[in-house]
Design brief:
rod-shaped; membrane
């Protein structure tokens, strides 16, 4: 017996036994979607660009294996999954996990506000540092101006003494 045939029979049995056939109309579009895109995948990747490749066996050739998976196994597996998907418990678990994550992790707005405050504090610190440097520079400029005026005063005094030509006592 072929492994592909065994999988197909098991999938049909599981869908018949555990599938909720009342919900078939809700699952039908997804089943058709899977089949169409599996065929589209085969069309584009046939013999060249495979992500996966179904291997033929002695009972089925390659095309038969692809058709069996495309029209039987994949849609019925999706049907089983979608009809047995836990709604109430799953939604409660997701809401609880979301609430826990949201309470422990700051929101995007809070992250932006934190970043804004950090940048604002860094700019304030830089401003204070620059004001201190500016004050030091002002003091140096004032000292330089005082030294320059003192040098000019001394040069003027030297010039006056030369003009007077005071001679030392002998």
């Amino acid at each position: 017996m072929s492994i592909h045939l065994a999988i197909a029979l098991w999938t049909v049995f599981a869908a018949w036994r555990w599938g909720r056939w009342i919900q078939f109309s809700q699952c039908y579009p997804t089943m058709v979607y899977l089949a169409c895109f599996q065929l589209l995948y085969e069309f584009f990747s046939h013999e060249k660009f495979y992500l996966w490749r179904l291997e033929p066996d002695p009972v089925f050739n390659y095309t038969s294996v692809v058709m069996l998976h495309t029209f039987c196994i994949y849609p019925l597996t999706a049907f089983l999954y979608l009809t047995r998907f836990p709604e109430v418990e799953w939604k409660a678990a997701v809401l609880a996990a979301t609430a826990i994550e949201t309470s422990t992790r700051p929101s995007g707005k809070r992250l932006l506000e934190n970043r804004y405050e950090k940048v604002k504090q860094a700019l304030q610190n830089e401003k204070e540092k620059n004001e201190k440097l500016l004050e030091i520079c002002r003091k140096h400029v004032i000292e330089k101006a005082q030294l320059k005026s003192r040098i000019e005063y001394l040069e003027n005094k030297i010039q006056e003494l030369r003009e007077r030509q005071l001679k030392p006592f002998q």
